[in-house]
Design a protein that fits this description.
- This protein has 233 residues and is mainly alpha-helical.
- The chain has one domain: Rhopdopsin 7-helix transmembrane proteins (Up-down Bundle).
């Protein structure tokens, strides 16, 4: 079996990604004295990862290959949701180690989420190549640049848990950069090893973000009870 065949197989997607998501959630929930709001956020993100790994597989278990509009809409929706979960976190994390969302946080996170897909489509349209992996690479590179800008410029100007959000942002930069490197290898050399390289950021995306949020969190003295509430800004 080649690396590309393994990458497209049930073993990698969804089985390995399911395992990563479950292990990541268990690791996150093992953090002592973690705020109840962060626990619930982690459970929500892990649930999204499990659904993502299931519904974006080439042959969806229990359903079969998606066809028609669903074949394009479902993967795109999960890409946007996957980015949104990170942006909502940086907009909702609080200095006391809790997560409190608000309408403003949802709006800002939605705006951040749309920047990279819009920019990458414009760049690829200007470049002209009708190659999906070129779009993947441009998307990943733009996301790295945006995340670096957030960490260096945006987050320091906002009052809040700077170390927490910056640590998680660096983690996100790492798996997006790994994706970009893997796709650069595939595009420039055609080497099969590029698909093996893609497995690592896949696992970090599906299973690593949740424990990264949990274990980078400041410990709350008195964990709040609600994930959604008026305490957000």
């Amino acid at each position: 079996m080649s690396y590309a065949e393994f990458y497209d197989s049930f073993l990698q997607h969804p089985l390995l990604l399911w395992a990563g998501a479950i292990f990541g959630l268990l690791l996150a929930l093992s953090r002592p004295s973690l705020s109840a709001t962060v626990r619930r956020y982690c459970v929500a993100l892990a649930t999204i990862s499990l659904l993502d790994a299931w519904l974006t597989a080439n042959d969806v278990p229990g359903i079969g290959p998606l066809t028609g509009a669903a074949a394009s809409f479902v993967p795109l929706a999960f890409v946007l949701i996957g980015d949104f979960r990170f942006f909502l976190f940086i907009e909702s994390a609080k200095p006391d180690g809790t997560v409190a969302t608000s309408p403003g946080a949802w709006m800002r996170a939605s705006a951040w989420t749309l920047l990279v897909p819009t920019g990458s489509q414009l760049i690829v349209f200007a470049l002209g190549p009708n190659e999906p992996r070129v779009l993947f690479f441009v998307y990943e590179a733009l996301f790295v640049l945006l995340s670096i800008g957030l960490a260096r410029v945006y987050l320091p100007r906002r009052s809040g848990p700077l170390k927490w959000t910056q640590r998680v942002t660096r983690f996100v930069i790492a798996y997006y950069a790994l994706w970009a490197v893997a796709d650069a290898v595939i595009l420039t050399t055609g080497e099969d090893v590029g698909f093996l390289l893609r497995v690592l950021p896949n696992v970090l995306y599906y299973g690593g973000l949740v424990p990264a949020i949990a274990w980078a969190a400041p410990i709350a003295d008195k964990p709040r009870e609600g994930l959604l509430g008026p305490q957000g800004s």
